[in-house]
């Protein structure tokens, strides 16, 4: 397997972006080839298994796949089971979810900028409709009493497109909301609820004075970001093996262009820091696609035994139940706390959390833009 193509901190030229994309494609092809050879030489048996995939409204879809299949194969199997057209598969993704104590599941939908494309198809419309209702039920979308009345009326009429179009006008439509966490902006130790969407991170901050403040950080103003895992220091050394699960802290830090000539690091301490980073990368990828004049397309990939066959009986995505009345006291949905062992490990110290990491740990932002006089 060749060395993984190195990352760069600063913005790449279009030619460099194409070159890195080509390098990544060659790397993935090499890895796939090595895995195939390994499976053949080690004679690892390939078996057919059944997976349960949950939609955003909790509906379960069962698909039969091979143990040698990859994520794209599973996604295509789900799309085939739902009769989602091939050209729309690229608008959806699979997520690891954590089952809640009451039996419900949480899941995330992305790429809301292309809703109109998805709504032109019957299955795509049902999936997007189920996602929108789910987000409203979770309290992720801000709805007042009058808007709730209008939404419920459209739902009772079965007007799914009109329901979605109205929801698109509401605050935080298309955002992913994370569990309450801690930030050092505008002051250290502030409690914050972070939302990701509309090419920004939205902060709802509770200051030490108990005053609530809201603000947003645009993705195009983030020069770079990184995720680190911190463990307590004992006798001058960090010993992750002796640390309990609750001792390890995940941090997302991004360098933000606050004004024309001032960059500042903002840090979020959250067990969902990796998911936040994935959301940032997804928004950057979408911006780069738009800048290049491209569009979202699914990866053209066939299974070893050929393309998927549509089922004879069409499976329709079920409509969710009618919306309940808004409940301000409702607890937030418990989301998956994504913890991966591949993040950087360091000991907690009094140094600036954003200054003691090498350049290789940063995610450079290809969509980074300067601030103009109009923005100021």
TrEMBL record:
<dbReference type="InterPro" id="IPR048763">
    <property type="entry name" value="SNX17-31_FERM_F1"/>
</dbReference>
<feature type="compositionally biased region" description="Polar residues">
    <location>
        <begin position="306"/>
        <end position="317"/>
    </location>
</feature>
<protein>
    <recommendedName>
        <fullName>Sorting nexin-17</fullName>
    </recommendedName>
</protein>
<dbReference type="GO" id="GO:0032456">
    <property type="term" value="P:endocytic recycling"/>
</dbReference>
<feature type="region of interest" description="Disordered">
    <location>
        <begin position="300"/>
        <end position="363"/>
    </location>
</feature>
<dbReference type="GO" id="GO:0006886">
    <property type="term" value="P:intracellular protein transport"/>
</dbReference>
<keyword id="KW-0813">Transport</keyword>
<comment type="similarity">
    <text>Belongs to the sorting nexin family.</text>
</comment>
<dbReference type="GO" id="GO:0005769">
    <property type="term" value="C:early endosome"/>
</dbReference>
<dbReference type="InterPro" id="IPR048767">
    <property type="entry name" value="SNX17-31_FERM_F2"/>
</dbReference>
<feature type="domain" description="Sortin nexin 17/31 FERM">
    <location>
        <begin position="49"/>
        <end position="104"/>
    </location>
</feature>
<feature type="domain" description="Sorting nexin-17/31 FERM">
    <location>
        <begin position="174"/>
        <end position="288"/>
    </location>
</feature>
<dbReference type="Pfam" id="PF18116">
    <property type="entry name" value="SNX17_FERM_C"/>
</dbReference>
<dbReference type="InterPro" id="IPR037836">
    <property type="entry name" value="SNX17_FERM-like_dom"/>
</dbReference>
<dbReference type="InterPro" id="IPR040842">
    <property type="entry name" value="SNX17/31_FERM"/>
</dbReference>
<feature type="domain" description="Sortin nexin 17/31 FERM">
    <location>
        <begin position="111"/>
        <end position="171"/>
    </location>
</feature>
<dbReference type="Pfam" id="PF21271">
    <property type="entry name" value="SNX17-31_F2_FERM"/>
</dbReference>
<keyword id="KW-0653">Protein transport</keyword>
<dbReference type="Pfam" id="PF21273">
    <property type="entry name" value="SNX17-27-31_F1_FERM"/>
</dbReference>
<feature type="compositionally biased region" description="Low complexity">
    <location>
        <begin position="334"/>
        <end position="358"/>
    </location>
</feature>
<dbReference type="InterPro" id="IPR011993">
    <property type="entry name" value="PH-like_dom_sf"/>
</dbReference>
<dbReference type="GO" id="GO:0035091">
    <property type="term" value="F:phosphatidylinositol binding"/>
</dbReference>
<dbReference type="InterPro" id="IPR036871">
    <property type="entry name" value="PX_dom_sf"/>
</dbReference>
């Amino acid at each position: 397997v060749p060395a993984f193509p190195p990352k760069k901190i600063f913005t790449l030229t279009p030619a460099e972006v194409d070159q890195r994309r080509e390098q990544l494609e060659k790397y993935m092809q090499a890895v796939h080839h090595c895995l195939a050879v390994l499976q053949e030489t080690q004679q690892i048996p390939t078996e057919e298994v059944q997976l349960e995939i949950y939609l955003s409204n909790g509906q379960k879809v069962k698909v039969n796949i091979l143990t040698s299949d990859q994520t794209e194969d599973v996604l295509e199997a789900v799309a085939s089971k739902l009769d989602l057209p091939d050209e729309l598969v690229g608008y959806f993704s699979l997520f690891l979810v954590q089952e809640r104590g009451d039996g419900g599941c949480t899941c995330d939908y992305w790429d809301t900028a292309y809703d109109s494309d998805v709504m032109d198809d019957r299955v795509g419309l049902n999936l997007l409709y189920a996602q929108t209702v789910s987000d409203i039920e979770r309290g992720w979308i801000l709805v007042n009493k009058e808007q709730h009345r209008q939404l419920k009326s459209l739902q009772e009429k079965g007007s799914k497109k009109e329901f979605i179009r109205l929801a698109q006008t509401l605050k935080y439509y298309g955002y992913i909301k994370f569990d309450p966490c801690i930030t050092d902006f505008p002051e250290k130790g502030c409690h914050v609820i972070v939302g990701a969407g509309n090419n920004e991170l939205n902060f709802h901050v509770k200051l030490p004075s108990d005053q609530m403040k809201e603000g947003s950080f645009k993705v195009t103003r983030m020069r770079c970001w990184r995720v680190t895992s911190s463990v307590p220091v004992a006798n001058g050394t960090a010993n992750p093996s002796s640390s309990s699960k609750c001792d390890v802290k995940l941090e997302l830090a991004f360098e933000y262009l606050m004004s024309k000539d001032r960059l500042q690091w903002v840090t979020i301490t959250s067990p969902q820091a990796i998911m936040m980073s994935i959301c940032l990368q997804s928004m950057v990828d979408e911006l780069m696609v738009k800048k290049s004049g491209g569009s979202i397309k699914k990866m053209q990939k066939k299974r070893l035994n050929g393309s998927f066959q549509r089922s004879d009986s069409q499976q329709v995505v079920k409509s969710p139940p009618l919306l309940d009345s808004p409940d301000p006291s409702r607890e937030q949905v418990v989301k998956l706390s994504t913890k991966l062992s591949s993040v950087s490990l360091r000991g907690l110290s009094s140094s600036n959390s954003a200054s003691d990491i090498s350049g290789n740990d940063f995610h450079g932002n290809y969509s980074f833009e300067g601030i103009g006089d109009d923005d100021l």
